[in-house]
Amino acid sequence: MRPLFLALAVCLASVTSSQAQDLQAILQTHADELAKPSRNSVGVVLDDLVASGLPQVPTFLEQWSEKNVWQQEDGMFFIAREQGDDLALRDVDTGAETTQPKHSFTQLKPNGGVRRVIGTALVQFQLSDPDLARRETAVASIARRPDATQLAPLLASIEGEVDAALKARKIQLANFMSASFADTQEQRIAAIYSLSTDTSVEARAALNQILSTKAGVATNLPDSTEATLPEGNIARVIDPTDTPLAYYAQAVEAGLAPQMTTRQMIRTALEAHIDNGRVGGVPLAQLDTDDMRAKAYAALAEAELVPPLVTEQTIAYTLPFYAFYEIYDEPDTAVTDAAEAALASVEARVGVAQTVDLALDGLSLASIYFLAAIGLAITFGVMGVINMAHGEFIMMGAYTGYVVQLFVPDYTLSIIIALPLAFAITFGAGVAMERLVIRHLYHRPLETLLATFGISIALQQLAKNIFGTQARPLTSPEWLDGALVFSDVIQISYIRIAIFVLALLFLALILFVLKRTRLGLEVRAVTQNPGMAASMGINPDRINMMTFGLGSGIAGIAGVAIGLYAKVTSEMGADYIVQSFMTVVVGGVGNVWGTLAGASMIGFLQKGIEWLNPSNTLAAQTYMILFIILFIQFRPKGIVALKGRAAAD
User: Fold this and answer.
1) How far apart are CA 47 and CA 36, in angstroms?
2) Residue 367 in 3-state DSSP?
3) Which H or E element spans position 411?
4) From the CB of residue 339, how many other CB atoms can be counted at a distance below 10 Å?
5) Cα separation of 543 and 296, whole Å?
6) pLDDT of residue 7
7) Are 342 and 192 in contact (CB under 8 A)?
8) CA dist 328 to 176, 187, 325, 510, Å?
9) If we measure between CA atoms, which residue out of 213, 187, 231, 208 comes closest to residue 340?
């Protein structure tokens, strides 16, 4: 029992000693370092403050860094706030507040370098602070400026971290830092290999930092034509023949080669060495060509009056006697080998992830084109009408959603109301257009095109008169904000996911109407063989009217969906009319599956071309149109052609 009592006595003594020690006493011990701190001297102060474990230390460090610590004439330190000619003082230990005149105090003003050192020490306390926000701030601070001294406190704080997300972030950041700052080679290599599956930008930055290099140049040994590389972790040897002048300039900068002789240098040297009408034995009258001036300069160089003549031919001859290389800043070859292997694995994964992300973008764009084109596919397929006003029905649907939101502030409810309302409005507009204009122009495609083009211009102007030329907001519900993030590379916005789901619902609904209802049966009959359908008692005129209204109504619903992420203006329909016609023609006129195939082909093709040529979107669209023109040459009836219509044609 005696050893137990002794241990207990020691513990009680240490606790009592810690309680008896106050922060002011430690500050008085380092009064000179606090008054005039430097990056070299402040480390001793911080070590003692951190070792004390006093709860007042973090607050003091924060206030010191923010220049809120003042020293009284008697040497005592206070946390203070200026109030005119006075200071509102707070005791560094008890927190007791008093007010005294400012003239008897001196403000401590640590410079930027000292504040950075203080911040590093402060992070050690903040990593285990009870406040989650402070811990998150500390981790973010380490991530911005990682330092070897921060690794140990970061590792020590992981086990006690109660927030799962922050704990995962600490582990990830500790891996990044261990790859560069761990004590042993084995620990660094283990941390590096743990990054081989991490596709984040931070992981790639950490690996690239380990693989950072600097350029170097070496010369050959005497009586040897082979250059000797220096000792060290050589990353690669470079062939200088692609850009010889640039690499020769590197040798000149390193002091291993004479500077290339320029025309101006030759002219200046010749002017300085004119002797009795000659320069280097060449008469002045003959110095009218570059060759003669070079000859005169060479004579001066041979007489050691000017530096040697160095021309491009000289450089080409002497360049093989130099070795140009890149050497790793990291001296350990095992570490750089591990980093190269890990980075290769990461880049391969990033390539796969970029492919997936590109596919998601293509799928999203295909969904938009499908929604925009499916109504046109129905009207164009059944009636053969080239409706240039189809884009304006999309615009009408988008403006319908905007108007509904003016009266229904709940964005979710407003979208639910806007979808059927947009269908009803554009259905009615489509029926009116078919009854008043289109039905008088059947079998006259050019006149139909001109008439619908005029209607589209009139609808655009009407929208400008009503809503103005400014873009109007069609706000999505909060649950559609943000994006579904799979990794730093793969992500897709919730609005695009919603449009994709809406496209699937429309596909299912249209297939149901066409395959399972009487209207669908009659539409298919008229599409494939109008004459035979009429002989079976089907009224083609009524079917044309209903079909045109249905296609226009679907365009209105597409307008609501598109307006959730695109600008709602009077010209928005023009952005989709060309793609809609291309989708219908490429996919196959009058066929739902053909429209789906055409939208998929155009969506993926456009995203692929944009990825290959990201700096020029217009050129990407031009290439896409050219490809589609070539495609139609080989398959004029589209991907999925209607057999009945093909037979009739």
Assistant:
1) 17
2) helix
3) helix 411-436
4) 27
5) 96
6) 37
7) yes
8) 19, 20, 10, 62
9) 208
Treating both helix axes as pointing N-terminal to C-terminal, what angle do 132-144 and 164-181 enclose, rounded to 10 degrees? 30
pLDDT of residue 18: 41
> Cβ contacts of residue 484 below 8 Å, gap of 6+?
491, 492, 493, 494, 497
Tokens of 166: 């922050």
Interval 221-255: pLDDT, tens: 555 555 577 788 888 888 888 888 888 888 888 88
Tell me the mean pLDDT in the region 260-283: 82
Predicted confidence (pLDDT) at residue 104 exceeds the cutoff of 50: yes
Tens of pLDDT, residues 478-499: 888 888 878 777 888 888 888 8
The average pLDDT across 346-365 equals 88
Determine which helix (DSSP H) or strand (DSSP E) holds 107, and give its type and residue range.
strand 105-107
Distance CA 392, CA 463 (A): 9
Look at residues 144, 141, 203, 129 and name the one whose alpha carbon lies nearest to residue 172.
203
How would you class 508 by CB atoms within 10 Å of its CB: exposed for 0-12, middle for 13-18, buried for 19 or more? Answer: exposed
Q: Domain map of the chain by residue range?
A: 2-126, 132-210, 213-333, 350-648
Which residue type is seen at 181?
F
Q: Is 83 left (phi over 0), alpha (psi -120 to 50) or beta?
A: beta
CA distance 185 to 334: 8
The answer to whether 44 and 30 have CB atoms below 8 angstroms apart is: yes
Residues shown for the chain:
649
